[in-house]
From TrEMBL, chain A:
HAMAP family: DabA (MF_01871). GO terms for cellular component: plasma membrane. InterPro entries: DabA (IPR018752). GO terms for molecular function: zinc ion binding. This is Probable inorganic carbon transporter subunit DabA. It is found in: Cell membrane. Belongs to the inorganic carbon transporter (TC 9.A.2) DabA family. Coiled coil: none annotated. Forms a complex with DabB.
Automatic annotation (TrEMBL), chain B:
PANTHER family: NADH-UBIQUINONE OXIDOREDUCTASE CHAIN 5. Keywords: Membrane, Oxidoreductase, Transmembrane, Transmembrane helix. The chain crosses the membrane at residues 6-31, 43-64, 96-114, 126-146, 152-170, 191-218, 230-254, 266-284, 290-311, 323-346. This is NADH-quinone oxidoreductase subunit L. It comes from Adhaeretor mobilis. Residues 82-129 form the NADH-Ubiquinone oxidoreductase (complex I) chain 5 N-terminal domain. It comes from the Bacteria. The lineage of its organism: Bacteria, Pseudomonadati, Planctomycetota, Planctomycetia, Pirellulales. The keyword Transmembrane applies. The gene is nuoL_2. It is a multi-pass membrane protein. Pfam families: Proton_antipo_M, Proton_antipo_N.
Length: 1039, 464
């Protein structure tokens, strides 16, 4: 039957369009994604343009921002030249007659802002501003003098005196004559310089307009509107989406609600479409004018038993969507409320992440409802605005016919571009007047071929290039110093390190590790993905549910439970009961304060609320300390342990299925140690440090947690790993597999809170007494390092004075974490730009400014198939690229791709945030989170050879796509020889680093002290004499 | 009544400190030398704390001397003896105004401290504080007002600054639209207020509450109007209060007002602004007593609002709307209490409710965190939500109730369809006539603005 075939195709079309929707799931488990995942199979540069077009967002920062970077030295002129040269390939040297080469023309267009506006705006600028009386301020004085002198000479020679010899001359005369009337022609010889300046500019403007009128270039047509709403909006200024979204947002939020509202949507179980029809089939009370007729329509659909797909088909026909257009139409219609549509699709396809699930096919139902509302609203607005009474399917052709076609670039707009350009390049009116129509056409074609979008692209590449060069030079330089034995900082391989610390690869741990190494030079640090190869469902002693602690791509098999130790079991039970009572009371209080009678009672006692209100806001840190003090009566006893060992064969959530077998544990321990290359010279004290973050007033809290734990806190993973690695049976197996694990090596789990910079240790009661002093030494070093880390972080917070001590800095960050009014508890991954995969010794003591993910990997320990590097990169590249690209897009367009401003955010349906009272759900990152970020693609520096990497890429399609599509930048490094190979246009090419020495400082503090903005690379060397590199001085001075 | 100079000075300080803040923030911004964040913050703290201390001192002196009524007169500005008209600037410290002033200072001060960090590095930082200072001034002036004109002055300042703060994020469409909506409703209520003020003058020859209430200070005053006069003035003031406090049928604006930064929503729509209508009713409560019909109307409107809002609150899926309706429920109850003559209870209720709701709104962004904590404490997710109206109701009724709540009682539709739409139609018709007439006179299309497209073309920066 043909109808069914059509419906099936319709479903496929909808599902295809669904891939364009934001991929962010419920905000309580925030996972960073490439915002443009839908276009990942395209190269980056094409994808951003296509994405920008599809979503109506910016692909790069505004030109102005790049120009600021240029003036601050974050982009150098040579970068722009190099990138432009590369982009133009061999066309750069093409001569464009009078205008010089194409390269020169484009450089001129890049050098200074080319302002433009709507035709009316330009007319205003010409008439009302000093555009025609004063030369642009960017113009160098010699060019200004040249313009004045040249014009004066020309006017005095050819117009003041002398006759027009030919037709062209007469034409020029005819255009200039009206101009003389504006100026005092009689006294031309005594004109002041200002008068000549004004006259020259007027002449130049006339010349440009004259040229623009001769030009035959047709400008590119705009994107055509596919939705009726867009055309209707352009014609009447009435937005049907305002009407439709008002209803649709309320309805969809009620349908998706995860348990906030007291009353659930009636007939929710029957699906969105049925619930909508039933709710709106009733002629209830007074309805909005535009929804009159909706009830009748809903009844008809119910009575005829029309399915959602049939209804969509019907709506498309009613709306007169043309054959072949339905794909674009459906995509654009879904994207009009993309946040909610995306959330429906996420819950539909990844329902395991939600407390309340929704039936499959909900997106189709959503579209069906939306189209019913759309056509109701369209009919209403068309009727109200221009008495449209015809069938709805004739609306689109009618609107198209009346569409304002006057969007082509006007003569004024064209002329104004050349006018600005002429001033900075030094084209004189005389020359411009002499150009032929063909030459003008050529000029405008060239200008059109290099629009703002292209200019921003060039700037962006130049910006990335500058950082890449700085980073690779720093790496080469640093490696050279180390290889030549110029630094005595790293612990000698022959002696045993005092301790070893393994943290997550997270960029926020970079500074923590660096400070730790500075505090305790005899220690070693390592970076591994923060779930430490333990993919588990975990339930803490005070938790209600199991949480998956592993990357989203993995579905855990094993379960782990935290229990109060046996001797405290009774106390634990008591406290759990207290917690439950307090929780239940609070919950009831919370809910009933919003009801009639409960609220009355609550409000009468409400004056008491002023105490926590004032305390929380005026003394956030003290309040938290007080709260902790009282919390001790209800929190689970400190002494707990992990139920980690399984007695049954199969893992599961039941008590005797919980945990791992000894062999599984051994495999995990071995894997992590091999991944990070810690297979020899193990110290007596090995600390594993998971991380997370806690903050108040932050719906996006989970985005600040460990990315390798799917937006949860990674402490339990570190604890579990330490417990596994301390188990003698496990160690026996590990040793048997060839890792010489000394008997006196003890593992300790820890948790680093990246927001308040606290570090807490697990299971210290199990620490052998022989290791007390080792632990104390390690603990002291970590205490000092976290203070220094907090201090380095504070340089980025404008509300933290630069004069803080380490202790004040710790207090400051603790205050931030507990402050209800703090919109920036920490800066999370902002500024991330680098990822090192290799041995720490090559990046150790290199100041990376918290911008680098650091994954430890030792190529010497890898096998012939490079299986270690493969599995390390399989995790690192997609995860780090996902974080980096989400930051990129949220930063280049915080409103379009990001979540906008945090201040009016409003939590909806416990799933996401809206702006203010009612808006679409806002996926992405909010503005306060990315404000210090510098959008650039992540640069991977991997300690391996190109051949190995190409092999690995060939075997891993996903990785290959990201690397070849330039979604990430990749370089390989062989530190001993200092060879760096950079992946560019599909192949590895050698990179030749500069030999300028890196600045050297004795501590990190010496380098970052007193500075808020971005900082360059530096070597940290306790015994070296500081040098100061001229380039860096220039950079520091630049502000 | 004699007022000692100490009290007079303290009273002046209470009123002058927000005025000083307005002057400092406003003038520096006007002359193009806006204050830095930290200076703005310090001025805010200083003026609030000074004002609060002065208010507390007055409270202490009143308690010590057992005074119930302290007028601060700042001159008789207009006096037309023939018409028995006079306009005096007069403030009153009594048992109603002092608690209200202290509440305003405490909550505004807290919000001021909150915002100084919350809006850190926000482009509209100073703009927020300018609106905020006007708001504080408005609250203090209306709380202390001794005449109806002074109350109107404060009332207007509060209304203006509230509407501007709803539209704080003016680069987006919906805050501006909702701000305008709030403003429009306020205009209606202001108009009623103004008419009531004129009527009061006409009836009593002055706007003094003291004269109006005859002998005795609040809450024991006895009004000097007749029952009919009281009903007329009272109903007008009730309309004014209903608009300001979002009572039925004006309730639609309250959830829409949640567009500004979270702290401004908290202070205005959770705490102070929304109670101002109730405060007005409290202030004129002696008038309410005079007319039974009036009292019944006040109770009825209060109860209807409370019931409506508590039903609507149950279906809201976002935290701010839910809190807006929760707030409205209590405001409705407070108004009913006032109608019943329970003045002290209403006052305690206002103060408690304002504190509670401010805290809840400020914590709103922490909702997910708090739910997680509670869920862990209880050990399971909260009980499954109930169907609208309970399980025992028939489906059709449930759907109706749900629809009613979800459409927010159809109140906005009601106003839009039966007030806004007809007025707009009439105006458009007049416009069409005028156009036809001018076209006829000029013999051509007479309006240049017709030719301007609604949306001008896209600028280069956005063109792809």
């Amino acid at each position: 039957m043909p109808v069914q075939f059509d419906l099936e195709r319709l479903r496929e079309t909808i599902e295809h369009a669904a891939h364009l929707l934001p991929a962010q799931g419920p905000i309580t488990a925030f996972v960073h994604h490439n915002t443009l995942h839908a276009f990942e199979d395209l190269p980056f540069k094409e994808a951003v343009v296509k994405g920008a077009d599809t979503f109506g967002c910016h692909p790069y920062l505004p030109e102005e921002r790049y120009r600021q970077k240029l003036s601050r030295g974050r982009i150098l002129p040579e970068d722009v030249e190099a990138v432009l040269m590369e982009e133009l390939e061999d066309q750069g040297d093409d001569l464009l007659g009078f205008f010089g080469t194409r390269f020169q023309l484009r450089m001129a267009m890049l050098a200074h802002p080319l302002r433009t506006g709507t035709a009316n705006e330009l007319r205003w600028i010409i008439a009302e501003t000093d555009a025609l009386t004063t030369v642009r301020e960017e113009v160098p004085s010699n060019l200004r003098d040249q313009l004045l002198a040249g014009t004066t000479r020309w006017i005095m020679r050819d117009f003041r005196n002398g006759q027009a010899r030919n037709q062209k001359g007469q034409r020029i005369r005819a255009s200039l004559d009206p101009l003389f009337e504006l100026f005092d022609k009689q006294n031309i010889e005594s004109w002041s310089e200002a008068t000549w300046e004004s006259f020259s500019l007027h002449a130049l403007w006339i010349a440009c307009r004259d040229g623009a009128m001769q030009c035959a270039v047709q400008s590119k047509s705009h994107r055509t509107y596919t939705r009726h709403r867009d055309l209707l909006l352009a014609k009447t200024g009435s937005d049907t989406d305002d009407l439709v979204h008002d209803v649709l947002i309320r309805l969809t939020a009620a349908f998706l609600d995860q348990g906030f509202a007291d009353w659930t949507l009636p007939s929710r179980e029957a699906g969105l479409y049925q619930a909508f029809l039933r709710l709106y089939s009733d002629h209830a009370g007074v309805t909005d004018r535009w929804t009159r007729g909706l009830a009748t329509e809903a009844r008809r659909l119910i009575e005829a038993g029309i399915s959602p797909l049939e209804s969509i088909d019907e709506s498309l026909q009613m709306l007169g969507v043309e054959e072949g257009q339905e794909q674009v139409f459906i995509a654009d219609t879904l994207l009009a409320l993309r946040g909610y549509a995306g959330m429906i699709w996420q819950l539909e396809t990844r329902g395991d992440r939600a407390a309340r699930q929704i039936p499959p096919g909900s997106l189709v139902e959503f579209l069906a409802v939306r189209l019913i509302l759309d056509r109701t609203a369209l009919g209403y607005v068309a009727r109200e605005e221009f008495d449209f009474t015809g069938a709805l399917n004739t609306l689109l052709p009618q609107l198209r016919a009346q569409e304002n076609k006057g969007t082509t670039t006007s003569v004024d707009q064209r002329a104004f571009e050349v006018f600005q350009l002429a001033q900075v390049v030094g084209w004189l009116p005389e020359h411009l007047f002499r150009l032929s129509a063909d030459e003008w056409t050529q000029l405008f074609e060239e200008i059109d071929a290099f629009p703002s979008l292209e200019r921003r692209c060039i700037y962006h590449l130049a910006f990335e290039r500058r950082y890449r060069i700085q980073a690779l030079d720093a790496v080469a330089n640093h490696c050279r110093r180390i290889a030549s034995g110029d630094t005595a900082q790293s612990p000698n391989k022959a002696t045993r390190p005092s301790m070893q610390v393994i943290t997550c690869i997270d960029d926020r741990e970079e500074s923590f590790r660096r400070h730790l190494e500075e505090v305790e030079p005899a220690c070693e640090t390592f970076g591994a993905a923060g779930f430490f190869a333990i993919a588990m469902y975990y339930r803490g002693a005070a938790d209600a549910h199991f949480t998956p602690l592993c990357p989203v791509s993995i579905k855990p098999q094993q379960y782990v439970v935290e229990k109060t130790v046996y001797s405290f079991a009774k106390a634990g039970q008591q406290r759990r009961n207290r917690r439950r009572i307090i929780g239940t009371v609070t919950r009831h209080g919370h809910n009933s304060s919003r009801t009639f009678a409960g609220g009355w009672l609550a409000a009468l006692l409400g004056s008491l609320a002023s105490v926590p209100l004032v305390m929380r806001i005026v003394f956030p840190r003290t309040t938290t300390q007080l709260q902790k003090f009282f919390g001790d009566f209800v929190l689970p006893p400190v002494l707990t342990n992990l139920h980690l060992e399984r007695t049954q064969a199969e893992p599961g959530p039941e008590p005797d299925q919980v945990g791992y077998s000894v062999t599984e544990m051994a495999a995990i321990v071995e894997r992590v140690l091999r991944d990070i290359g810690l297979t020899q010279n193990l110290s007596r004290m090995i600390v594993l440090c998971g991380h997370g973050s806690s903050s108040l007033n932050n719906p996006h809290e989970s985005a600040y947690n460990c990315g390798a734990c799917a937006g949860a806190r990674g402490g339990p993973n570190a604890r579990a790993f330490a417990q596994m690695a301390n188990d003698p049976r496990v160690r026996e197996l590990v040793v048997a597999n060839g890792i010489p694990l000394p008997d006196d090596s003890v593992f300790v789990g820890a948790y680093h809170n990246t927001c308040d910079d606290s570090v807490e240790f697990y299971d210290l009661d199990r620490l052998p007494t022989t290791h007390s002093s080792d632990f104390e030494q390690a603990s002291d070093a970590i205490q000092t390092a976290r203070g220094r880390n907090a201090h380095e972080r504070c340089r980025r917070f404008y509300s933290a004075p630069l004069s803080l001590t380490d202790q004040d800095a710790l207090k400051h960050v603790e205050g931030r974490a507990n402050d209800l009014s703090q919109a920036r508890p920490e800066y999370n991954h902002a500024t991330n730009a680098l990822c090192f995969v290799g041995q720490r010794e090559w990046s150790r003591n290199l100041f990376l400014d918290r911008r680098a993910f650091l994954q430890s990997y030792d190529p010497a320990q890898d096998d012939a198939d490079h299986s270690i590097l493969t599995r390390v990169l399989q995790a690192a590249i997609p995860v780090c690229a996902g974080i980096n690209l989400e930051y990129y897009f949220s930063c280049v367009d915080p409103v379009g791709w990001g979540a906008g401003n945090k201040l009016p955010h409003n939590i909806a349906a416990l799933l996401g945030v809206m702006d203010g009272a009612s808006s679409d759900l806002r996926p992405g990152l909010y503005r306060q989170m990315i404000e210090i970020h510098e959008p650039m693609r992540l640069l991977f520096v991997i300690e391996t050879t190109p051949a190995v990497l190409l092999n690995i890429m060939a075997a891993n399609e996903g990785m290959d796509r990201l690397v070849r599509g330039s979604w990430v930048q990749v370089a390989t490094v062989e530190p001993e020889s200092g060879t760096i190979m950079l992946f560019q246009s599909g192949e590895f090419v050698p990179y030749y680093p500069s030999t300028n020495p890196l600045p050297i400082r004795t501590t990190s503090l010496d380098w970052y002290r007193g500075w808020r903005d971005h900082l360059g690379f530096a070597s940290i060397s306790a015994d070296a004499v500081s040098n100061d590199e001229p380039v860096v001085q220039h950079l520091r001075k630049g502000h | 009544m004699e007022v000692t100079w100490e009290i007079f000075v303290l009273g002046l300080v209470v009123i002058a400190s927000p005025l000083a803040l307005v002057a400092v923030l406003g003038t520096t911004a006007l002359i193009g030398k806006p204050l830095s964040e930290s200076k703005t913050q310090n001025w805010t703290y200083a003026t609030t704390i000074i004002g609060l201390i002065a208010a507390l001192a007055i409270l202490a002196m009143m308690l010590a001397d057992d005074k119930r009524y302290i007028p601060i007169e700042l001159g008789n500005w207009v006096a037309i003896p023939d018409q028995h008209f006079h306009f005096s600037l007069k403030f009153v410290f009594d048992r109603l105004s002092v608690p209200f002033v202290i509440l305003s200072y405490v909550l505004c001060g807290t919000i001021g401290a909150f915002t100084s960090r919350y809006l850190h590095r926000e482009p509209g930082y100073l703009r927020f504080y300018v609106c905020y200072s006007f708001f504080v001034l408005g609250m203090i002036v209306s709380s202390l007002a001794g005449t109806i004109e002074v109350l109107f002055l404060g009332w207007e300042l509060v209304g203006l600054s509230s509407a501007l703060l709803v539209a704080f994020f003016h680069d987006r469409k919906s805050p501006v639209r909702n701000g305008l909506r709030v403003w429009s409703v306020y205009r209606v209520s202001d108009a009623a207020f103004l008419v009531a003020a004129v009527a009061l003058h006409h009836l009593t020859g002055g706007g003094d509450f003291g004269g109006l209430m005859g002998i005795g200070s609040w809450p024991d005053g006895i009004a000097t109007l007749t029952s009919e006069q009281a009903m007329f003035v009272g109903l007008l003031l009730l309309v004014a209060a209903a608009g300001k406090s979002a009572l039925v049928p004006f309730s639609g604006w309250l959830p829409r007002a949640m567009e500004g930064p979270t702290p401004s929503s908290a202070i205005f729509y959770g705490a102070l602004s929304v109670h101002l209508g109730a405060f007005l009713l409290l202030r004129i409560s002696p008038i309410l007593e005079l007319s039974l019909i009036l009292s019944v109307t006040v109770v009825a409107i209060g109860l209807v609002t409370a019931i409506f809002a508590s039903v609507a609150a149950r279906v809201q899926t976002d935290i701010k709307s839910a809190l807006a309706y929760a707030s409205l429920t209590q405001v409705g109850i407070i108004v009913a209490e006032i109608g019943l003559g329970l003045r002290y209870i209403a006052l305690i209720h206002i103060i408690g409710h304002a504190c509670l709701r401010t805290l809840q709104l400020l914590r709103a962004p922490t909702l997910l965190h708090d739910y997680q904590v509670l869920e862990n404490a209880i050990g399971q997710q909260d009980a499954t939500p109930t169907a609208a109206g309970g399980h025992w109701t028939p489906t059709w009724l449930r759907e109706r109730v749900y629809r009613f709540a979800s459409e927010r009682g159809h109140l906005d539709s009601l106003i839009d369809s039966y007030v806004v739409y007809p007025i707009r139609r009439v105006l458009l018709q007049c416009d069409a006539w005028e156009r036809a007439w001018t076209d006829f006179l000029s013999g051509t299309q007479s309006r240049e603005s017709d030719a301007v497209p609604v949306h001008d073309d896209v600028v280069e920066e956005l063109r792809l």
